[in-house]
Specification:
By secondary structure, the chain is α/β, with parallel strands linked by helices. It is built from twelve helices and 15 strands. The strands form three sheets. It has a seven-stranded mixed beta sheet with strand order 7-6-8-9-10-14-15, sandwiched between helices. Helix 4 packs parallel to helix 5 (about 105-120). Residues about 5-10 and about 420-425 have low confidence and may be disordered.
Length: about 425
C-alpha cells in the first residue's frame, strides 16, 4: 500500500500535537507512594505495612489495575527519623509524582509530613490508631480515634468483667500520641470519679530497653490497696523488653492487667507470651477473628508472604490491626479513583466520602462523609500462650470516630468538616 506525502505530513502533525504521547501517558502505571520505616526503632511495626500495601497493589493489578492502568509502588525508607519523613514525603509528591501515599505510624511522623501534604495538595492514608485532635483535607485516617480504642478499653478495665480497676498507670513512649491520649484518659478517669492520687503517669524515650525499675515502680503503686491496671501506649521495639520484664517480675494479668494500644500479633512475635496470658490489647481487628472475610485475608497474606519470602512471615504469617487498616485504605482509594474516573486529589477526596469495604474484622468499614475517619468496631483481646488473642469484649457494630475528644476543653465548639484542621500541641 502506498502512503502519500500528504498522509505522512498529517501523521507528523498529529505526532507533533503529542497525541501518541498522551495515549502512552494514559497507559502508564499510576505511581503509589509507600512511606514506612524499614529501619530504626519503628521497623518492627512498620515494615509489614509496606508489604501489606504491596500485596494490595498486586491484588488490584491482577484484576486489571485502576482505570485500566497498573499501580506501581514507590517505596522509601524514612528510617524512624521524623524530619526525614517530611523530606521523603516531598520527594514522593514532587519528584516521583505519586498519586497517593500510604504511610506513617507514629503521630510525630504524621505531623512531620502533614504540612507537606497540605502545601502540595497530596493525599495521605494513615493506618494507625492515634490521639485525634486533628482533621485534614489531605489525610484519610483508617486507624482508630480515641473513642474507637482508648476510651472503650479503660471503660472495660473499670467494668466488672474487666476487673473493676480503681487505680491506673498511664505508661507510654514520650511523644505526642501517648501524651495526648493520656491527657484525654486523665480527664475521662476524673469524670468517673478517679482521684488524682490514683493515676500514675510515666514516659520512656523511643528505643528504651530497661524496664526493670519502671515495672518495680508499677508493682509498688499497685500494692497500695486498690485494684490497679496499666494502660500502655509504648510504641515500637521497646514493647519487647517491656513485656519480657513484665514476665521476669511475675506481674500477672490477674494481679495488674496491662491493656496495650500499640501491641498486636507482630510485636509479640519475639516474646515468650506464656507469662503474659490474660494481658490485654484493644484494637479494631485481631487475626483470631472467625469469619469468611478474615479467613480469606489471612490466606492471601500467607500465600503472599511465602511467595515473596518475607522474613518471619514466610514461616509464621501473622496479620494485625494496622495491616487491616492499610489494606482497607488501599482498596478504598482504588474504589474512589474508579468512581472519580481520575487520580486528581480533589476529585478522589470527594469520591472517598461514604466509601465502604468488607473488612476482615467481619464488619463493613465505612469512610465518614465529613471527618475522613473510618467507622470501626472495637475489640478487646486477651493474650494467649501462642501470641494470638481471645476476644473478650466487642462493640455491637462499627463506631463513628470522634476526632475531637469531648474530654478536651473547647472541643465542643469544633466542627468535623475536613476543611478544618488543628494540630495537638
Amino acid at each position: 500500500m502506498k502512503i502519500s506525502r500528504r498522509s505522512v505530513t498529517a501523521l507528523a502533525a498529529v505526532t507533533a500535537l503529542g497525541l501518541p504521547a498522551l495515549a502512552l501517558a494514559q497507559q502508564a502505571p499510576i505511581k503509589v507512594g509507600v512511606l514506612h520505616s524499614l529501619s530504626g526503632t519503628m521497623a518492627i511495626s512498620e515494615t509489614v505495612l509496606k508489604d501489606t500495601v504491596l500485596m494490595a497493589i498486586d491484588e488490584i493489578n491482577a484484576k486489571g489495575g485502576v482505570l485500566g492502568r497498573k499501580l506501581e509502588a514507590v517505596v522509601v525508607d524514612p528510617a524512624s527519623n521524623w524530619p526525614l519523613f517530611a523530606e521523603k514525603a516531598r520527594q514522593l509528591l514532587t519528584q516521583d509524582k505519586v498519586a497517593v501515599v500510604f504511610g506513617c505510624w507514629t503521630s510525630v511522623s504524621r505531623k512531620s509530613v502533614l504540612p507537606v501534604f497540605e502545601e502540595l495538595n497530596g493525599l495521605l492514608f494513615y493506618p494507625v490508631q492515634y490521639e485525634g485532635e486533628e482533621i485534614s483535607r489531605n489525610v484519610f485516617y483508617t486507624g482508630a480515634a480515641p473513642n474507637q480504642q482508648a476510651i472503650p478499653a479503660v471503660e472495660y478495665l473499670m467494668s466488672k468483667d474487666g476487673g473493676e480497676a480503681k487505680r491506673f498507670v498511664l505508661l507510654g513512649t514520650d511523644y505526642v500520641y501517648p501524651r495526648t491520649t493520656n491527657k484525654i484518659l486523665r480527664a475521662f478517669l476524673k469524670s468517673k470519679g478517679v482521684a488524682e492520687a490514683d493515676i500514675m503517669e510515666e514516659y520512656t524515650p523511643f528505643g528504651h530497653s530497661d524496664y526493670q525499675s519502671i515495672i518495680a515502680k508499677i508493682k509498688k503503686f499497685a500494692s497500695e490497696g486498690k485494684k490497679t491496671a496499666v494502660v500502655s501506649t509504648i510504641n515500637g521495639d521497646s514493647n519487647v523488653p517491656f513485656y519480657k520484664e513484665l514476665g521476669n517480675q511475675g506481674l500477672k494479668a490477674t494481679d495488674v492487667p496491662v491493656v496495650a494500644f500499640s501491641v498486636g500479633e507482630e510485636e509479640l512475635r519475639g516474646v515468650d507470651t506464656k507469662p503474659l496470658v490474660g494481658h490485654l490489647a484493644a484494637w479494631n481487628y485481631f487475626m483470631s477473628l472467625k469469619n469468611p472475610t478474615n479467613d480469606a485475608f489471612i490466606k492471601r497474606w500467607s500465600d503472599y508472604a511465602k511467595a515473596k519470602n518475607i522474613p518471619g512471615h514466610k514461616d509464621k504469617p501473622l496479620t494485625n490491626d494496622p495491616m487491616e487498616a492499610t489494606y482497607i485504605g488501599v482498596h478504598m482509594w482504588a474504589q474512589a479513583v474508579e468512581k472519580a474516573k481520575s487520580t486528581d486529589v480533589d476529585k478522589v477526596r470527594v469520591a472517598m466520602a461514604g466509601q465502604t469495604f468488607n473488612a476482615p474484622s467481619g464488619f463493613v468499614a465505612k469512610m465518614d462523609e465529613k471527618n475522613h475517619h473510618l467507622h470501626k468496631p472495637v475489640f478487646i483481646g486477651e493474650v494467649r500462650a501462642d501470641g494470638q488473642f481471645n476476644v473478650v469484649w466487642k462493640t455491637p457494630g462499627p463506631v463513628r470516630a470522634q476526632p475531637w475528644s469531648p474530654f478536651i476543653p473547647g472541643n465542643e465548639k469544633k466542627k468535623d468538616e475536613p476543611a478544618r484542621m488543628a494540630q495537638a500541641k
